[in-house]
Amino acid sequence: MVSILALAIVLTAPHATAQIEIVDSITVNFSTFQGSGFTPTPAAGQLNSDDWAITGFSTGDLAFGGTATSGDYARGASAGGESLGGIYAFDVGGSSNNALGVQASSTDFTPGTITLRIRNVSGATLDQIHVAYEVHEYNDGDGSTSVTFSHSDDDLAYTAVPSLDTTTTGATGVAGWSGAAPKSTTISSANVPDLGFFYLRWSSDDVVVAGGRDEIALDNIEITVTTLGTPVPLLGSRATTLLILALIATGVLAWAPFATFRYPSAPE
Ligand SMILES: [Ca+2]
Ligand SMILES: [Ca+2]
Ligand SMILES: [Ca+2]
Predict the structure, then answer these.
(1) Which ligand ends up closest to the CA of 212?
(2) Total domains, the chain
(3) 5, 178, 185, 197: which could form a disulfide with 256 (CB 3.0–4.6 Å)?
């Protein structure tokens, strides 16, 4: 179905940046990520640094819009079972099911953060933001690692969501990926103005240091937002308005009192 609101947004939203634009539901599944680094103009296998900022690696921090295409930031694609610290495109199972993954080390990501920046171009103020994601673990070391979530509207003050905290298994188990641990939360009263940013952050650190660190990976990040405010007015003649209302009533068109983000930049 066609969303009238989505159409209005497509027609009116500014497109000044390569960042997340608004149309409909989004799932970031890293299907084309190959662990080849981060730039604001990503090539195949890279992620867009306009969307991602990372701290905690010995190579140095990655700010939004920065470039990091070597060392810790570009460990490539892997099935897991690594020990060299850095960011990988881990195949966590299924058919080429890559995820955004980290192998931590004593100097990498202990602690560290991965932050995803989204931009509201809905034309309205965001009310609720629903976030769902998967945490995967590869328990190839006796250590255990935390993965926690927080969010911010200014990239300075972050609000933790302790109910989403997770920790990888301690004693080494059977080699392989654990399967997804699904997490989700709804951020109420987000109050992000039109053209404002919002930040989703995953943090990690050692919980137990013993005989090697597990790999962790994020996948299938779903973001859905609800906007406050006035519906988009129906434009045109009375006849046109009545036609649109009729199409809505019959289900041909959907009046969407919400809007969601998508990624326009293909590498994600
Ligand atoms: Ca994936
Ligand atoms: Ca472990
Ligand atoms: Ca490992």
Answers:
(1) 3
(2) 1
(3) 5
Those residues with Cβ within 8 angstroms of residue 190's Cβ, 6 or more apart along the chain or in another chain: 126, 127, 128, 129, 153, 198, 225
Give domain status of residue 267, yes or no.
Answer: no
Least confident piece of the model among 20-29, 39-48, 109-118, 229-238:
229-238
- Cis peptide bond N-terminal to 111, omega within 30: yes
Handedness of CA 28, 34, 37, 42 (dihedral sign): negative
In angstroms, what is the span from residue 94 Cα to ligand 2's centroid? 22
| Cα of 134 from ligand 3 centre, angstroms | 19
238 within some domain: yes
- The tens digit of pLDDT for each residue in 165-182 reads 999 999 998 889 998 899
Whether 113 is in a domain gets the answer: yes
* Structural domain of 137: 2-262
Residue found by looking up tokens 């930049």 in the block: 265
Cα 83 to averaged position of ligand 3 atoms, centre (Å): 5
Query: How many Å apart are CA 211 and CA 56, to the nearest integer?
Result: 21
Is residue 268 one of the residues assigned to a domain?
A: no
Which residues lie near ion ligand 2 (Cβ < 5 Å)?
Answer: 139, 141, 214
CATH number at residue 176: 2.60.120.260
Length of the chain: 268
Which residues neighbour 193 within 8 Å (Cβ) at sequence distance 6 or greater?
A: 120, 125
Supply the pTM of this predicted model.
0.80
**Residue 45 Cα, ligand 3 centroid: separation in angstroms?**
22
The bound ligand whose nearest atom lies closest to the alpha carbon of 206 is 2
141 alpha carbon, closest ligand: 2
